[in-house]
Design brief:
The chain has 243 residues and is low in regular secondary structure. 6% of the residues lie in helices and 2% in strands. It has one helix and two strands. A two-stranded parallel ribbon has the order 1-2. It starts with a helix and ends in an 11-residue tail after the last strand. 55% of the residues are buried.
């Protein structure tokens, strides 16, 4: 039975590049563990509940693909086009999504712990409640995105752009956010305890009720930011808020 399943899976993989989109679009619950699906045109494919651990989807076009509840542990999606893709409740622990295009994607309650998202584009994405603990998102773009209640604990977002993002209730405890751009972001009730925000741009952001105890704000630009009822280890200096 295991050999038959492998043959069926390999047959799917071999034929993917030969089939038209209207011939096959659903692989609900199919196993692609360790499969090579790189450099494929897979727009709109349904991979819901699929088992895709250690699979290679790098450089593939996966716009509007459905990965909800899929298992992509240690999967390779670097440079993939994932615009409008759905990762709701999917598991991408240790996955590589560096330089992936995730604009307008949805990953509500997705698990991305320890994933690599360096230079990924998440412009206007909705990742509400996503688990992003210890991810590497350095130089990533999260402009106008929705990360309400997301967990970025001990993650690296150095030089990331979060301009206009909604991060209310998110957790950044222990995270590295050096030179990150939070301008015009909603950071209400966000947890920044022990985070490194040195040289970050915090201009015109909403920190109402945020917890910044133990956070490093050295040389951060806080001009126009609202710290009403925020918890701080030391007051925001006038020099910080007038650069």
């Amino acid at each position: 039975m295991l050999e038959l399943n492998k043959l069926l899976r390999d047959d799917y993989v071999r034929k993917l590049s030969q089939m038209q989109l209207d011939e096959v679009s659903e692989f609900l619950g199919t196993s692609f563990v360790g499969s090579d699906l790189s450099n494929q045109y897979l727009v709109g494919m349904d991979f819901a509940y699929a088992k895709m651990a250690s699979s290679n989807l790098s450089n593939s076009v996966l716009r509007r693909a459905n990965f909800s509840n899929a298992r992509l542990f240690e999967a390779d999606l670097k440079n993939a086009n994932l615009q409008y893709a759905d990762f709701e409740s999917a598991c991408l622990v240790h996955a590589n999504l560096s330089s992936a295009d995730l604009q307008y994607s949805s990953a509500q309650n997705g698990d991305f712990r320890y994933a690599i998202l360096r230079e990924a584009n998440l412009d206007s994405a909705n990742w509400t409640g996503a688990a992003l603990r210890r991810t590497n998102m350095s130089n990533a773009t999260l402009k106008h995105s929705l990360f309400v209640d997301a967990d970025f604990s001990h993650a690296c977002l150095d030089s990331a752009c979060l301009f206009g993002a909604n991060l209310s209730g998110a957790h950044f405890a222990g995270s590295s956010l050096k030179k990150a751009n939070f301008r015009f972001s909603n950071l209400k009730h966000t947890n920044f305890r022990g985070a490194d925000l040195s040289h970050a741009c915090l201009r015109d952001s909403n920190f109402r009720g945020a917890d910044l105890r133990g956070a490093n704000l050295k040389d951060a630009d806080t001009f126009g930011a609202d710290f009403t009822r925020a918890q701080l280890s030391y007051p925001i200096l006038e020099s910080q808020s007038s650069n």
